[in-house]
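TODO from last week: model Metalloregulator ArsR/SmtB family transcription factor.
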Amino acid sequence: MKNTPQTNFDRMFHALSDPYRRAFIEQLSKGPAAVKELAAPAAVQLPAVLKHLRVLEEGGIVISEKVGRVRTYRMRPDAFRAVGNWIDERQSEMNDAFDRLAILMAQTPEKKDH
């Protein structure tokens, strides 16, 4: 699969679609954590935790580092920048459309029903 901005967004939104993965993101947003630390509060087995973390890594949200036998995950500093920019652009376009509508409504004379 070609790595395009759209596929990156698709991977990120897929990664964010699971409540366990969102919980890992919340935990990692407070600082790096080892796999066992991430697995402790989760009600899933370690292999499932590793699969979830792999999806987060493929989604560009987290990165991992292995030192000895311990794999530690941390948030990418710019993990949500592209999506945040994309959302900001959509919000701006929506606001512009509403502004144009408000101007048009203000310029349109009101008809009186009698």
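Done. The first strand starts at residue 33 and ends at 34.
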